[in-house]
Amino acid sequence: MSKFIDEVNEEQERYSPVRTAVKAAAGDIQAAREAGKPLNAIFRTLKRKGQSVGAGYSSFRNAVLYLDRHGWPDTVADPSPMLMPTLAPDQPARDRFIDNRHTSDF
Predict the structure, then answer these.
(1) How far apart are CA 7 and CA 91, in angstroms?
(2) Which helix (H) or strand (E) holds 44?
C-alpha cells in the first residue's frame, strides 16, 4: 500500500474512536455473536468491563454494522446475504407478491 493510503487510513481511524475500540475487542465480539448472544448484551458486558465501545448502544451497533459490511480485522470483506437478497429465477423482479395470490399492476 502506498504511504498516502496509509495516512488516509490513519486519519479515518482517528475520527472513528468507537470503530477502533470495537476492532480492539473484535475477537470477543465475534465469538459472542457466533455463540448467538445478542448485540445489546455484548455491548453491556464490554461497558461493564470498562472498555470504551461508544457512549451508547447505537454508536456501538453502527460500528459493528460497518465492520460487518467492510470486513473485520484479519477477515476479507464478504457481502452478507441479508444485504443482497436474491430472487428465484422464475420470480419477476417487480412482483411484490411472492405467493402469486395477487398480481402486480405494473
Answers:
(1) 47
(2) helix 39-48
